[in-house]
Description:
Chain A is mainly alpha-helical and 230 residues long. Chain A has eleven helices and three strands.
Amino acid sequence: xxxxxxxxxxxxxxxxxxxxxxxxxxxxxxxxxxxxxxxxxxxxxxxxxxxxxxxxxxxxxxxxxxxxxxxxxxxxxxxxxxxxxxxxxxxxxxxxxxxxxxxxxxxxxxxxxxxxxxxxxxxxxxxxxxxxxxxxxxxxxxxxxxxxxxxxxxxxxxxxxxxxxxxxxxxxxxxxxxxxxxxxxxxxxxxxxxxxxxxxxxxxxxxxxxxxxxxxxxxxxxxxxxxxxx
Amino acid sequence: xxxxxxxxxxxxxxxxxxxxxxxxxxxxxxxxxxxxxxxxxxxxxxxxxxxxxxxxxxxxxxxxxxxxxxxxxxxxxxxxxxxxxxxxxxxxxxxxxxxxxxxxxxxxxxxxxxxxxxxxxxxxxxxxxxxxxxxxxxxxxxxxxxxxxxxxxxxxxxxxxxxxxxxxxxxxxxxxxxxxxxxxxxxxxxxxxxxxxxxxxxxxxxxxxxxxxxxxxxxxxxxxxxxxxxxxxxxxxxxxxxxxxxxxxxxxxxxxxxxxxxxxxxxxxxxxxxxxxxxxxxxxxxxxxxxxxxxxxxxxxxxxxxxxxxxxxxxxxxxxxxxxxxxxxxxxxxxxxxxxxxxxxxxxxxxxxxxxxxxxxxxxxxxxxxxxxxx
Lengths: 230, 375
């Protein structure tokens, strides 16, 4: 549900969503920093990071603490989906539709050649949907594989070592994919690109300028206008 | 007719050079005779087989010396008292001390001993520290190099040659020597394999330090690098069908990374393979035989079960032999790189769109606001 405000801005994120987003962002940053430092342990920056975290023990504790935080952010998300109308409405809107492909294609052509109609995006652009589902699935995989890796003794009591090795490679490779999708792509797409530098304040204020919204999400804008007229 | 030169030779008394030669020869012969005299005095007692002395403690010292080995050694030209310098009367009124090799063996000596600073390395070794702490069993130079039959280390007959040095160490370290000789390394040495590591390859020579010393080659922090001297060399490992990636797979494992960052309780090569009793994994006695892996892992991971042995231990996700781990890693790499490529295309398109929008604004609507994004 996206609604107009009296000052012409559009409510984009509820308070719970912003808290959830902030917790997710903090935990993922800590997880990525403490995790990739392990994967790239031979690099000078990784040695500095591990030193800052208090060595291997501190790094391990931080990684596990952030993992618990991530699970909590996930539980908050599922709780929202069960009990919050804003979450439920956004969840319906973030599902892929056939129009995402056609509008996405239009967006590419329009971006590349300047010809044809601009894309008629709804509440979420196809790019944002990919990012959401990428992180959604990615976090489930990370949490699942992470818990197997948490304690080798407990895991190997249940699974053969080959499963542990598989989880290890899934965990470290998926982390790098999440780094690309989230830290690089999402940060660029949402917070840096198109005049948003240094960041889009919506993740703090929850609001977005009406004019910006109309241009970027015309389908949702039109639906809102229609709803208000009715 | 005689030339002046011929005449000169006839007339002149023997030349100075000849005199000098004769004097030197006489001195040499004199010295030899003196040395022989000295040595004879010594051998008067020590040359008798069965010459021995019983100490007040009851210990019997065999004091017989066969002069032949000394005459075949690198010290063949030295007399007894040149090394046993504290002996100056016969019979001895005081108990002769052990020989101090440092009288000649120091860098800058004029006695003809090899010029090297190696001698100083002994000072900080575990053996010298034990000596200083009062351990009378701690070895001096002669305990390893031999007393009278000292040969160059490159001489295969030497006690410190590659072939014999382990046996020499084993004189004191009997139990470890037994384990080593049973190990894959010891057996290779017995077969005359020149690649086989001997004690000094891992522990060092004069500068041997205890495993608790941070700079020791067998300190837990350094063990992997010590093993890597051979085990990361493809040329050597290929001969024995051993994967030279074992070192890098260890270094990239949790154990290796923890060890690198100072967690010394994390497993190193010796924790699993043992230090001296290293056996190939197909040997049922080996600590890394699948049947023994639960016990080996269980030393650090209490309750380790057979699952620890189900799968490869040294896994290299970049090698096809890793099976599904390799393919999953490869799939993820392709996905991550494609996403990265998608991101670059996205950024490129974005910039392209902005440049074009600016141009068209400048041409038609100079005051039009910038298009922006949002979450």
